[in-house]
Write a structure and sequence with these properties.
The chain is elongated. By secondary structure, it is of the alpha+beta class. It contains three helices and 16 strands. Among the domains are: about 70 residues, Thrombin, subunit H (Beta Barrel); about 80 residues, Thrombin, subunit H (Beta Barrel). A hairpin with a 4-residue loop joins strand 7 and strand 8.
């Protein structure tokens, strides 16, 4: 009580002043039509602004949940695309029973770690062995190729980025069908090099480079980049092609992990052929 009296003794004049101002404002607004309309209009504007800001903050906090939900839906839809299945045509006499065998499935994941300035860049995603993630699986986005899973724990996976000097991925010049090998030279993170495309291939600036199935990591036709410059090195019969990557690796937040469901069968068949 003594503290309250001391506070009033020190700031009493100011408190009385504020109280009188509130009373005066109330009387003016309550008994003057024009001032009341101005007050109501101003309060509505202020209330609308506060509601909008509150809604923006709420949407921001829910953004992660919304993004996760969209990523799951996109992964489910990708599994239904033609590239995720192949046509199986068993024939008995003249009866053809056409079915489709699921070849690829996709798991959405969030990127929780990323590097682009090293020679051997890596990403970390928030999905691991309990989600079915295994070493050797590919990473893609809606725009293009991202990398390959290299190490897996129960809840996370480390992946070598396409911007990794140790990574070699087969890719195809879409127009001619000629293929070569992708490699990163450790320079511009927006570019990558395609080597070993024969010099008789008719290529032009802006042509698309896409994945092929030789590596059993990525589905056919996933975008890698577009041709920026190309040349034939002296004494060789192959192009060096510099590509502009279709996916900006520095900005990715979500990826899809590619599950090639027939990988074991393909490797078994290839191993049997080598043994013969």
């Amino acid at each position: 009580m003594q503290n309250l009296l001391q506070l009033f003794a020190r700031y009493g004049s100011f408190i009385v002043f504020v109280l009188l101002e509130v009373i005066c404002l109330y009387l003016i607004v309550n008994y003057n039509k024009q001032q009341r309309e101005i007050f109501l209009n101003s309060s509505n504007i202020l209330s609308g602004w506060a509601t909008e800001k509150t809604d923006q903050i709420a949407r921001f906090w829910n953004l992660s949940q919304i993004s996760d939900s969209l990523a799951m839906d996109n992964a489910r839809l990708r599994t239904l695309l033609d590239k995720a299945t192949f046509e199986n045509l068993p024939t008995t006499d003249t009866i053809i029973d056409t079915t489709y065998t699921q070849e690829y499935m996709y798991t959405p994941a969030r990127v929780v770690g990323n590097s682009i300035i090293l020679w051997d860049n890596h990403l970390t995603i928030n999905k691991g062995s309990k989600d079915g993630i295994r070493r050797g699986m590919g990473l893609i986005t809606e725009k293009g190729v991202v990398g390959i899973v290299s190490n897996v724990t129960e809840d996370f996976a480390q992946c070598v980025s396409i911007l990794n000097g140790k990574v070699r991925v087969s890719a195809t010049h879409k127009k001619s069908g000629q293929f070569g090998t992708l490699l990163w030279r450790g320079e511009d993170p927006r570019k990558i090099t395609l080597k070993d495309v024969p010099k008789y291939a008719e290529i032009e600036k802006g042509d698309s480079i896409v994945t092929n199935r030789f590596s059993s990591i990525f589905p056919d036709g996933i975008s890698v980049g577009t041709i920026d410059t190309f040349w034939v090195e002296r004494g060789t019969n192959f192009y060096n092609i510099e590509l502009n990557l279709t996916e900006d690796i520095s900005k990715i937040r979500y990826v899809y992990v590619v599950h090639y469901l027939l990988k074991n069968q393909q490797q078994e068949a290839e191993g049997a052929a080598i043994d013969e």
